[in-house]
Write a structure and sequence with these properties.
about 180 residues; homodimer; about 80% helix; HTH_TetR (chains A, B)
Protein backbone atom coordinates (compact mmCIF):
# COMPACT_ATOMS: atom_id res chain seq x y z
CA UNK A 1 0.00 0.00 0.00
CA UNK A 2 2.93 2.32 0.77
CA UNK A 3 4.38 1.49 -2.62
CA UNK A 4 1.07 2.10 -4.40
CA UNK A 5 0.80 5.50 -2.74
CA UNK A 6 4.37 6.40 -3.72
CA UNK A 7 3.90 5.33 -7.32
CA UNK A 8 0.67 7.31 -7.59
CA UNK A 9 2.48 10.33 -6.15
CA UNK A 10 5.17 10.26 -8.83
CA UNK A 11 2.53 9.80 -11.54
CA UNK A 12 0.62 12.82 -10.21
CA UNK A 13 3.73 15.00 -10.05
CA UNK A 14 4.63 14.08 -13.62
CA UNK A 15 1.13 14.70 -14.99
CA UNK A 16 -0.23 17.47 -12.78
CA UNK A 17 2.84 19.19 -11.36
CA UNK A 18 3.47 20.22 -7.77
CA UNK A 19 0.33 22.26 -7.13
CA UNK A 20 -1.96 19.68 -8.78
CA UNK A 21 -0.56 16.93 -6.56
CA UNK A 22 -2.75 16.83 -3.46
CA UNK A 23 -2.98 13.99 -0.98
CA UNK A 24 -6.65 13.60 -1.95
CA UNK A 25 -5.84 13.13 -5.63
CA UNK A 26 -3.04 10.71 -4.79
CA UNK A 27 -5.21 8.57 -2.45
CA UNK A 28 -7.92 8.35 -5.06
CA UNK A 29 -5.48 7.38 -7.80
CA UNK A 30 -3.81 4.77 -5.59
CA UNK A 31 -7.20 3.38 -4.55
CA UNK A 32 -6.25 3.84 -0.90
CA UNK A 33 -8.52 5.26 1.77
CA UNK A 34 -7.76 8.70 3.10
CA UNK A 35 -7.24 7.24 6.58
CA UNK A 36 -4.71 4.69 5.37
CA UNK A 37 -2.88 7.37 3.43
CA UNK A 38 -2.68 9.62 6.50
CA UNK A 39 -1.43 6.65 8.52
CA UNK A 40 1.47 5.99 6.13
CA UNK A 41 2.23 9.60 5.21
CA UNK A 42 0.77 12.28 7.49
CA UNK A 43 1.56 15.20 5.15
CA UNK A 44 2.02 15.89 1.44
CA UNK A 45 5.66 16.64 2.21
CA UNK A 46 6.25 13.21 3.80
CA UNK A 47 4.57 11.52 0.88
CA UNK A 48 6.38 13.35 -1.89
CA UNK A 49 9.86 13.18 -0.37
CA UNK A 50 9.47 9.45 0.36
CA UNK A 51 8.07 8.77 -3.12
CA UNK A 52 10.82 10.57 -5.01
CA UNK A 53 13.52 9.01 -2.82
CA UNK A 54 12.19 5.48 -3.09
CA UNK A 55 11.49 5.52 -6.81
CA UNK A 56 14.87 7.08 -7.57
CA UNK A 57 16.44 4.09 -5.84
CA UNK A 58 14.27 1.62 -7.69
CA UNK A 59 15.20 3.32 -10.94
CA UNK A 60 18.86 2.87 -10.04
CA UNK A 61 18.25 -0.88 -9.68
CA UNK A 62 16.83 -0.88 -13.23
CA UNK A 63 19.97 0.92 -14.39
CA UNK A 64 22.16 -1.71 -12.78
CA UNK A 65 20.46 -4.35 -14.88
CA UNK A 66 20.92 -2.30 -18.05
CA UNK A 67 24.59 -1.87 -17.15
CA UNK A 68 25.12 -5.62 -17.01
CA UNK A 69 25.18 -5.75 -20.82
CA UNK A 70 27.56 -2.90 -21.58
CA UNK A 71 29.54 -3.43 -24.79
CA UNK A 72 33.35 -3.38 -24.85
CA UNK A 73 33.50 -1.07 -27.87
CA UNK A 74 31.79 2.27 -27.34
CA UNK A 75 31.40 1.58 -23.64
CA UNK A 76 31.66 5.24 -22.60
CA UNK A 77 28.86 6.31 -24.94
CA UNK A 78 26.72 3.42 -23.70
CA UNK A 79 27.33 4.43 -20.08
CA UNK A 80 26.29 8.01 -20.90
CA UNK A 81 23.08 6.64 -22.43
CA UNK A 82 22.27 4.71 -19.25
CA UNK A 83 23.03 7.65 -16.98
CA UNK A 84 21.21 10.10 -19.23
CA UNK A 85 18.08 7.96 -19.16
CA UNK A 86 17.86 8.67 -15.43
CA UNK A 87 17.66 12.41 -16.12
CA UNK A 88 14.87 12.21 -18.67
CA UNK A 89 12.77 9.69 -16.76
CA UNK A 90 9.39 10.35 -15.11
CA UNK A 91 11.08 10.14 -11.70
CA UNK A 92 13.44 12.96 -12.70
CA UNK A 93 10.52 15.16 -13.77
CA UNK A 94 8.78 14.37 -10.47
CA UNK A 95 11.98 15.27 -8.60
CA UNK A 96 12.18 18.50 -10.61
CA UNK A 97 8.72 19.50 -9.33
CA UNK A 98 9.80 18.77 -5.78
CA UNK A 99 13.13 20.54 -6.22
CA UNK A 100 11.60 23.73 -7.63
CA UNK A 101 8.86 23.81 -4.99
CA UNK A 102 11.56 23.45 -2.31
CA UNK A 103 13.42 26.48 -3.62
CA UNK A 104 10.77 28.81 -2.18
CA UNK A 105 9.63 26.65 0.77
CA UNK A 106 12.16 26.54 3.61
CA UNK A 107 10.48 23.66 5.45
CA UNK A 108 10.30 21.50 2.34
CA UNK A 109 13.91 22.36 1.53
CA UNK A 110 14.95 20.90 4.89
CA UNK A 111 13.89 17.45 3.76
CA UNK A 112 14.69 17.77 0.06
CA UNK A 113 18.29 18.95 0.47
CA UNK A 114 19.51 15.77 2.24
CA UNK A 115 17.67 13.60 -0.32
CA UNK A 116 19.31 15.46 -3.18
CA UNK A 117 22.74 15.19 -1.59
CA UNK A 118 22.30 11.45 -1.09
CA UNK A 119 21.04 10.86 -4.63
CA UNK A 120 23.85 13.08 -5.97
CA UNK A 121 26.54 11.14 -4.08
CA UNK A 122 25.12 7.80 -5.16
CA UNK A 123 24.84 8.80 -8.81
CA UNK A 124 28.40 10.12 -8.73
CA UNK A 125 29.69 6.84 -7.24
CA UNK A 126 27.69 4.88 -9.77
CA UNK A 127 29.11 6.89 -12.69
CA UNK A 128 32.64 6.22 -11.43
CA UNK A 129 31.88 2.51 -11.19
CA UNK A 130 30.33 2.21 -14.66
CA UNK A 131 33.18 4.15 -16.26
CA UNK A 132 35.79 2.25 -14.23
CA UNK A 133 37.38 5.46 -13.03
CA UNK A 134 39.42 6.30 -9.94
CA UNK A 135 38.40 9.80 -8.94
CA UNK A 136 41.66 10.56 -7.17
CA UNK A 137 43.55 10.61 -10.49
CA UNK A 138 44.02 13.76 -12.57
CA UNK A 139 40.87 15.85 -12.74
CA UNK A 140 38.61 12.80 -12.99
CA UNK A 141 36.51 13.99 -10.08
CA UNK A 142 35.65 17.29 -11.73
CA UNK A 143 35.10 15.67 -15.13
CA UNK A 144 32.57 13.24 -13.63
CA UNK A 145 30.85 16.08 -11.78
CA UNK A 146 30.67 18.07 -15.01
CA UNK A 147 29.20 15.02 -16.73
CA UNK A 148 26.40 14.76 -14.18
CA UNK A 149 25.74 18.51 -14.31
CA UNK A 150 25.57 18.23 -18.09
CA UNK A 151 23.08 15.36 -17.84
CA UNK A 152 20.98 17.39 -15.38
CA UNK A 153 21.00 20.33 -17.80
CA UNK A 154 19.97 18.05 -20.67
CA UNK A 155 17.20 16.64 -18.48
CA UNK A 156 15.86 20.11 -17.75
CA UNK A 157 15.87 20.89 -21.48
CA UNK A 158 14.01 17.63 -22.14
CA UNK A 159 11.29 18.60 -19.67
CA UNK A 160 9.89 21.22 -22.05
CA UNK A 161 10.33 19.68 -25.47
CA UNK A 162 11.48 16.39 -26.88
CA UNK A 163 15.05 17.12 -27.92
CA UNK A 164 16.29 13.52 -27.92
CA UNK A 165 18.11 14.04 -31.24
CA UNK A 166 20.05 17.05 -30.05
CA UNK A 167 20.85 15.28 -26.76
CA UNK A 168 22.17 12.26 -28.61
CA UNK A 169 24.56 14.37 -30.70
CA UNK A 170 25.81 16.26 -27.63
CA UNK A 171 26.43 12.96 -25.82
CA UNK A 172 28.32 11.56 -28.84
CA UNK A 173 30.78 14.45 -28.52
CA UNK A 174 30.87 14.20 -24.75
CA UNK A 175 31.82 10.50 -24.93
CA UNK A 176 34.81 11.40 -27.13
CA UNK A 177 35.87 14.10 -24.67
CA UNK A 178 35.50 11.71 -21.72
CA UNK A 179 37.68 9.09 -23.40
CA UNK A 180 40.38 11.73 -23.89
CA UNK A 181 40.10 13.35 -20.48
CA UNK A 182 39.55 10.56 -17.99
CA UNK A 183 42.76 9.13 -16.62
CA UNK A 184 42.27 5.43 -16.29
CA UNK A 185 44.05 3.34 -13.71
CA UNK B 1 4.86 51.16 -15.74
CA UNK B 2 5.22 48.09 -17.97
CA UNK B 3 8.79 47.72 -16.81
CA UNK B 4 7.82 48.10 -13.15
CA UNK B 5 5.23 45.35 -13.57
CA UNK B 6 7.75 43.07 -15.25
CA UNK B 7 10.40 43.63 -12.59
CA UNK B 8 7.88 42.97 -9.82
CA UNK B 9 6.86 39.76 -11.60
CA UNK B 10 10.40 38.41 -11.65
CA UNK B 11 10.87 39.38 -7.99
CA UNK B 12 7.67 37.52 -7.07
CA UNK B 13 8.64 34.41 -9.03
CA UNK B 14 12.03 34.34 -7.32
CA UNK B 15 10.64 34.84 -3.82
CA UNK B 16 7.24 33.16 -3.95
CA UNK B 17 7.47 30.70 -6.82
CA UNK B 18 4.94 30.09 -9.56
CA UNK B 19 1.83 29.51 -7.47
CA UNK B 20 2.56 32.45 -5.15
CA UNK B 21 2.87 34.80 -8.11
CA UNK B 22 -0.61 36.18 -8.74
CA UNK B 23 -1.43 39.29 -10.76
CA UNK B 24 -2.85 40.85 -7.57
CA UNK B 25 0.41 40.37 -5.66
CA UNK B 26 2.42 41.70 -8.61
CA UNK B 27 0.24 44.83 -9.04
CA UNK B 28 0.53 45.62 -5.36
CA UNK B 29 4.28 45.15 -5.33
CA UNK B 30 4.70 47.28 -8.46
CA UNK B 31 2.44 49.99 -7.04
CA UNK B 32 0.28 49.79 -10.15
CA UNK B 33 -3.51 49.76 -10.18
CA UNK B 34 -5.27 46.57 -11.10
CA UNK B 35 -6.85 48.30 -14.10
CA UNK B 36 -3.52 49.48 -15.43
CA UNK B 37 -2.04 46.03 -14.93
CA UNK B 38 -4.90 44.40 -16.85
CA UNK B 39 -4.45 46.96 -19.62
CA UNK B 40 -0.77 46.10 -20.09
CA UNK B 41 -1.00 42.37 -19.40
CA UNK B 42 -4.48 40.82 -19.54
CA UNK B 43 -3.42 37.48 -17.99
CA UNK B 44 -0.81 36.08 -15.64
CA UNK B 45 0.60 34.16 -18.59
CA UNK B 46 1.09 37.35 -20.67
CA UNK B 47 2.75 39.05 -17.74
CA UNK B 48 5.13 36.26 -16.80
CA UNK B 49 6.22 35.36 -20.33
CA UNK B 50 6.86 39.04 -21.15
CA UNK B 51 8.70 39.63 -17.87
CA UNK B 52 11.03 36.64 -18.20
CA UNK B 53 11.70 37.44 -21.87
CA UNK B 54 12.40 41.11 -21.30
CA UNK B 55 14.58 40.71 -18.22
CA UNK B 56 16.60 37.93 -19.84
CA UNK B 57 17.43 40.37 -22.62
CA UNK B 58 18.34 43.12 -20.19
CA UNK B 59 20.55 40.70 -18.32
CA UNK B 60 22.31 39.91 -21.60
CA UNK B 61 23.08 43.62 -22.01
CA UNK B 62 24.72 43.56 -18.55
CA UNK B 63 26.77 40.57 -19.67
CA UNK B 64 27.93 42.43 -22.75
CA UNK B 65 29.35 45.13 -20.54
CA UNK B 66 31.11 42.57 -18.34
CA UNK B 67 32.54 40.97 -21.48
CA UNK B 68 34.14 44.25 -22.55
CA UNK B 69 36.90 43.74 -19.96
CA UNK B 70 37.82 40.12 -20.64
CA UNK B 71 41.49 39.36 -19.89
CA UNK B 72 43.85 37.93 -22.52
CA UNK B 73 45.18 35.28 -20.16
CA UNK B 74 42.56 32.91 -18.77
CA UNK B 75 39.98 34.26 -21.18
CA UNK B 76 38.06 30.98 -21.51
CA UNK B 77 37.60 30.67 -17.73
CA UNK B 78 36.49 34.31 -17.57
CA UNK B 79 33.95 33.73 -20.35
CA UNK B 80 32.58 30.69 -18.47
CA UNK B 81 32.20 32.88 -15.39
CA UNK B 82 30.19 35.46 -17.32
CA UNK B 83 27.97 32.83 -18.97
CA UNK B 84 27.54 30.91 -15.72
CA UNK B 85 26.37 34.05 -13.92
CA UNK B 86 23.36 34.08 -16.23
CA UNK B 87 22.33 30.61 -15.03
CA UNK B 88 22.50 31.41 -11.33
CA UNK B 89 20.81 34.82 -11.60
CA UNK B 90 17.37 35.73 -10.25
CA UNK B 91 16.08 35.84 -13.83
CA UNK B 92 17.17 32.23 -14.33
CA UNK B 93 15.32 31.14 -11.19
CA UNK B 94 12.25 33.04 -12.38
CA UNK B 95 12.56 31.33 -15.77
CA UNK B 96 12.87 27.97 -14.00
CA UNK B 97 9.50 28.54 -12.28
CA UNK B 98 7.95 29.40 -15.63
CA UNK B 99 9.63 26.47 -17.36
CA UNK B 100 8.51 23.90 -14.81
CA UNK B 101 4.96 25.26 -14.70
CA UNK B 102 4.84 25.03 -18.50
CA UNK B 103 5.76 21.34 -18.42
CA UNK B 104 2.28 20.44 -17.18
CA UNK B 105 0.31 23.32 -18.78
CA UNK B 106 -0.10 22.95 -22.54
CA UNK B 107 -1.34 26.51 -23.10
CA UNK B 108 1.54 28.03 -21.18
CA UNK B 109 3.99 25.79 -23.01
CA UNK B 110 2.77 27.27 -26.31
CA UNK B 111 4.21 30.65 -25.32
CA UNK B 112 7.18 29.45 -23.28
CA UNK B 113 8.63 27.10 -25.89
CA UNK B 114 9.32 29.85 -28.50
CA UNK B 115 10.79 32.10 -25.78
CA UNK B 116 13.13 29.32 -24.64
CA UNK B 117 14.17 28.57 -28.21
CA UNK B 118 14.96 32.23 -28.84
CA UNK B 119 16.90 32.65 -25.58
CA UNK B 120 18.72 29.38 -26.28
CA UNK B 121 19.74 30.48 -29.80
CA UNK B 122 20.89 33.88 -28.57
CA UNK B 123 22.92 32.47 -25.70
CA UNK B 124 24.53 29.97 -28.06
CA UNK B 125 25.49 32.74 -30.51
CA UNK B 126 26.77 34.86 -27.67
CA UNK B 127 28.94 32.03 -26.31
CA UNK B 128 30.46 31.53 -29.79
CA UNK B 129 31.19 35.23 -30.00
CA UNK B 130 32.80 35.52 -26.56
CA UNK B 131 34.94 32.43 -27.13
CA UNK B 132 35.82 33.55 -30.66
CA UNK B 133 34.74 30.23 -32.12
CA UNK B 134 33.52 29.20 -35.57
CA UNK B 135 30.90 26.54 -35.00
CA UNK B 136 31.35 24.94 -38.39
CA UNK B 137 34.81 23.64 -37.41
CA UNK B 138 35.42 20.27 -35.76
CA UNK B 139 32.82 19.48 -33.11
CA UNK B 140 32.75 23.07 -31.86
CA UNK B 141 28.99 23.24 -32.20
CA UNK B 142 28.39 20.24 -29.93
CA UNK B 143 31.04 21.37 -27.44
CA UNK B 144 29.36 24.78 -27.09
CA UNK B 145 25.95 23.13 -26.72
CA UNK B 146 27.36 20.83 -24.05
CA UNK B 147 28.84 23.87 -22.28
CA UNK B 148 25.45 25.57 -22.12
CA UNK B 149 23.74 22.36 -20.96
CA UNK B 150 26.42 22.02 -18.29
CA UNK B 151 25.81 25.61 -17.16
CA UNK B 152 22.05 24.95 -17.05
CA UNK B 153 22.65 21.87 -14.91
CA UNK B 154 24.89 23.87 -12.57
CA UNK B 155 22.19 26.54 -12.37
CA UNK B 156 19.57 23.99 -11.39
CA UNK B 157 21.90 22.66 -8.67
CA UNK B 158 22.43 26.23 -7.43
CA UNK B 159 18.69 26.75 -7.09
CA UNK B 160 18.51 24.50 -4.03
CA UNK B 161 21.78 25.17 -2.21
CA UNK B 162 24.66 27.54 -2.58
CA UNK B 163 27.30 25.40 -4.26
CA UNK B 164 29.39 28.22 -5.69
CA UNK B 165 32.64 26.56 -4.62
CA UNK B 166 31.87 23.25 -6.30
CA UNK B 167 30.71 25.10 -9.42
CA UNK B 168 33.92 27.09 -9.54
CA UNK B 169 36.08 23.95 -9.41
CA UNK B 170 34.02 22.25 -12.13
CA UNK B 171 34.34 25.34 -14.35
CA UNK B 172 38.13 25.49 -13.77
CA UNK B 173 38.40 21.98 -15.21
CA UNK B 174 35.95 22.69 -17.97
CA UNK B 175 37.91 25.76 -19.11
CA UNK B 176 41.03 23.59 -19.54
CA UNK B 177 39.04 21.02 -21.52
CA UNK B 178 37.45 23.72 -23.70
CA UNK B 179 40.87 25.13 -24.59
CA UNK B 180 41.89 21.66 -25.74
CA UNK B 181 38.67 20.80 -27.54
CA UNK B 182 37.67 23.96 -29.38
CA UNK B 183 39.19 24.30 -32.81
CA UNK B 184 39.99 27.95 -33.29
CA UNK B 185 40.06 29.60 -36.69
Amino acid sequence: MRLRLMEATVDCLVELGWSGTTTTVVSKRAGVSRGAQLHHFPTKQDLVVAAVGHLTERRRDDMRQAAADLPEAGRTRAVLEILSAQFVSPVFFAALELWVAARTDAELRESVAPLERRVGRETHAYALELLGVDESRGHNREVIQATLDLLRGLGLAASLSDDAKRRSVVLDSWAIILDQQLELA
